[in-house]
User: What shape does this take?
Amino acid sequence: MYQRYFMRIAYDGSVFHGWQRQPNAETVQEVIEKWLAKILHLPRVITTGCGRTDTGVHAKDFYLHFNPEVENLDIQDLLYKLGHVLPKEIAVYDLFPVHDMAHARYDATERSYEYHMHYKRNPFIKSFSTYCAYPLDVAKMNDAAQLLIKKGDFGAFSRMGGGQKTNICDVRSAYWEDNGERLVFHITADRFLRNMVRAVVGTLMDVGTGKISKEEFRQIILSEDRNKAGDSARPEGLHLAKIIYPYINDGVYDTSLLKKEEA
Assistant: This one.
């Protein structure tokens, strides 16, 4: 079996149709696999990401794993070459060998997202933050956001036909941060459903405008019905902010913390 590697990257999703490979559309996964194969002189390199982001969504912290069919991979050489050929919208931060059972998607124990909004039009951040043209009651939105902090069914915020086996998520924190010009929603959970964060943000904005009350927000959660929730917020404001693994501390791979032992 060839050595498995983890790669940590970040990307500007505004020019891609999400992370996951698709027919007839350029994605982050497709671009990375194409250049890995060219640099390593392989017919194909298959990667597995820590999750998938939709079209226009960004990632500040994203891990993927792959098993290149090469011996004695020169990590520094590969990083150097990737830095010269990948489009400017993708940055590779790190690459390191891991245990052969380490898995970028299934081993992640916690994921954090941010949703960025701004109150004044700004052409320099329009691809990374959503313009909000109307006032929001942030205190009410923060009060309602506390109802999300639990382990439960979040089907009310899941894209219909998302394909997940369960809608159960353990949401560990959820809050809004407002500095007067920018508004950021922070949410952390063990996992997220497809389109979940954008649906949560859109529904909390309904609380902020007075369209629905905190109690109505509670009932939407309990309904487990996507038709009851609000519209999804636009994609450009969403950022995958952090991924946590039990065997990576501050970006350093620690084999002593592995959950899975080599057979």
